[in-house]
Amino acid sequence: MNVDLQKIVGKNYNRFWHSKKRYVACKGSRGSKKSTTTALKYIYLIMYYFHTYNLKPNLLVIRRYMNTNWDSTRAQLIWAINQLGVSHLWKIPKGEHTLTYRPSGQQILFRGFDDPQSITSITVADGNLCWVWIEEAFQITSEEDFNKLDMSIRGNIPEPLFKQITLTFNPWSDKSWLKKRFFDNPDENTDTFTTNYMMNEFLGEDDVKIFETMKEKNPRRYKIEGLGEWGIAQGLIFENWKVEDFEIEELIREHYNEKTTRGLPSFVSCNGMDFGYNDPTVMIGAYADRKNYKIYVYYEFYEVMMENRKIASKLITDGFGESIIRADSEDPRTINELRLLGLHGIKGAKKGAGSVLGGIQKLQDYEIIVSPRCPKMIESLSNYAWKKDRMTDKIMNEPDHEFSHAPDALRYGCEDLQKFGIQV
Fold first, then answer.
1. Residue 231 CA to chain centroid, in angstroms?
2. Which of 297, 263, 271 is nearest to 414 (CA)?
3. C-alpha separations of 112 from 57, 68, 144, 189, 237 in Å
4. Are strands 90-91 and 99-101 parallel, antiparallel or unpaired?
């Protein structure tokens, strides 16, 4: 079957498609077709090198967590297989992650950085493991983890094959190690790309309209999500945070029965919820170590246009049915409905004059440690900033609404935290 590759792939990615550098770092906006082009490229190359040179390159696809591959990278690669009209040549098992090219046995393997041993010890049954695609690479917070992966792609490979690691991501913060490593001073082994939605000729008019509206109403978000530029938010509200892997169950066991100087528990649950519909509804699961002034954010629920019944069902399934959840008290009807639907511990947060700034100041007293499992919180803290006066461009003592939803939920959840104890 013959296909028009140019018609399927489209324009603007010629250098990306033909790069043979070891590192290909591609940051970009939403809708820039960076992930779809990557999927098409590797499906095509796997088949091309076998039929042209009788070589068998294999592909390893990685995300921060293995379970997120199923609905993202795997689905993207299956889409690419179908777009190229070669689904009859690929084995796509329903219950497995692996995709296999039937004529040669070449494979696409999927792994997550949550199981590093499965990455560093990976081998293929036939051919060469020479290509890696890291999707949502911004979530890989440790350059050391990346280096371990890099070292695992080793050994001689036959010409004209080449080793390559492609990283695709949205550039939420310029603090990411990705910027310094690949963009500030790229070496001769690196190709870098910045892509945006205007490079995607397959977007519909309604899709483009979303970006045009964003440009007008939310220029900070447009810079990142529209133009693919690094998130550099002036006047950030929180700089007392970092991303770190931890297991909340281990921390709970470690702090079990610990007391503060006032005889109260030192490690306390701080779950908070902010309501929305067109705006997101957010629930943040956190624990606060009041003795060492640390807040651990370990869980996030972040959805738009979701009915209360589905919200309650999801949070109950995730273990919050009986948990105390402090929610936005401006919507008591929603709080009552969610309680009737099974979130028995939900209650309104205290709100009033000065509560927002007071809550922010309280959180600024703590070091906020965010699990990589909470990408929306990471995105929000990277960009949550003080408003600017439109006339003078001076920073105001009022937070901008943009990127506020996850921090607001955390603020509600932590409203009872005091410097030396808990108000009860």
1. 14
2. 271
3. 20, 8, 15, 25, 32
4. antiparallel
The pLDDT assigned to 261 comes to: 67
* Shared-domain flag, residues 18 and 152: yes
Domain count across the chain: 2
Comparing CA positions, the residue from 307, 289, 282, 301 lying closest to residue 411 is: 282
Instruction: Encode pLDDT of 208-233 as tens digits.
Output: 999 999 898 878 789 888 999 998 76
Same domain for 175 and 321? no
Measured at the CA of 174, the angle between CA 64 and CA 171, to 5 degrees, comes to 50
- Are 193 and 274 contained in the same domain? no
Start-to-end CA distance of the chain, whole Å, equals 71
**What sections of 204-354 are H helices per DSSP?**
205-217, 219-221, 248-255, 308-317, 332-340
Q: Report pLDDT digits (tens) over 57-115.
A: 999 999 988 888 888 999 999 999 999 999 999 999 988 889 999 999 999 999 988 87
* Enclosing domain of residue 37: 5-202
| 65 contacts 112 by C-beta, under 8 angstroms | yes
Q: How many CB atoms lie within 10 A of CB 112?
A: 17
Cα–Cα distance, 61 to 98 (Å, whole number) = 10
Q: How confident is the model at residue 418 (pLDDT cuts 50, 70, 90)?
A: low
Do 25 and 95 belong to one domain?
yes
pLDDT of amino acid 198: 97
What CATH number corresponds to the domain at position 389? 3.30.420.280
* pLDDT digits 0-9 by tens, 320-348: 999 999 999 998 999 999 999 999 999 99
Q: What is the CA radius of gyration of the chain?
A: 24
- Strand 267-269 versus strand 281-289 pairing type: antiparallel
pTM: 0.74
pLDDT at residue 130, rounded to an integer: 95
Q: How far apart are CA 122 and CA 116, in angstroms?
A: 10
Q: Judging by DSSP bridges, how do beta strands 23-28 and 164-169 pair with one another?
A: parallel
CATH assignment at residue 103: 3.40.50.300
> What is the structure's pLDDT at 80?
98
C-alpha distances out from residue 356 to 285, 313, 360, 404, 410, Å: 19, 29, 6, 11, 12
Q: Give the per-residue SS3 of 159-224.
A: CCCCCEEEEEECCCCCCCHHHHHHHHCCCCCEEEEEECHHHCCCCCHHHHHHHHHHHHHCHHHHHH
